[in-house]
Amino acid sequence: MIVKLAEKRGFCFGVEDAIEIAEKAIDEHGAGNVVALGPVIHNRQVVERLESAGLRQSGRLEELEPGANVLIRSHGATPDVLQQAEKKRLNVIDATCVLVKKAQEVVKRLHQEGYRVVMIGDRNHPEVRGVIAYAPDVVVIDHVEDVARELPHKEKLGIVAQTTHAPEHVAQIIAAIVKRPYVELRIVNTLCLEVIRRQQAAVKLAGEVDVMFVLGGRHSANTQEMARLCREAGVDTYHLETWADFDPSMVEGKSIAGIAAGASTPDWVINDFADRLREV
Ligand code: SF4
Hints:
about 40% helix, binds iron/sulfur cluster, 4-stranded parallel β-sheet, 12 strands
């Protein structure tokens, strides 16, 4: 097959930083002595590598002994978790992406300034769960249909978005909000440019190929969004984690394949996939 790669793909600076912080912590404290609160990033292959280097995982602070080294994932943590960690005298190693941290601070400030905070995003995503905990009563919406149903009637709204959402999706929801009689809307752009550049590169490539492979973790929001945008561009698109998910029927009758990858997909996964696909 002819294989083309998206110009911008794979690791962003937030993911690179989080992996580096995790590796340094393991080096410093020793294998088995650093516990991550959930997957450090949304990529199983990277998480498995970190685990084999000695990173442990736990979903619960209660399980940890005082003084334990606890790693906060790139998606951040709620203020409650951080307070509990402090109370238990845990050594907190923070790998929260700076852009997620910024979103947390924006939500807190908007609330302090009297805005009812609205977050456009997936309420089940760990980043969103963390960010909305920085102010009370944040309304989370992810679909245009939610606007009439979920939003309060008359208030001044402060709006932010999940960092990994596509600008087009956020713009649709904001367009629905501005049609309603709000006294004031304050929109703070919390979208991540790293994600937008990868999405744009993927959509551009989708216009040049017969089939698209979008590589990345099943739970990676930015990879899911990238695959959705490629499908919307009208090309057959498969969201796969690694070559193990590939099936020859996916390229039947196709001659040019495109490969794009989310911000948490390592180069070794992308290169391995591309090499094998060229052989098909
Ligand atoms: S995709 Fe953006 S927000 Fe998410 S970790 Fe990377 S740089 Fe940070």
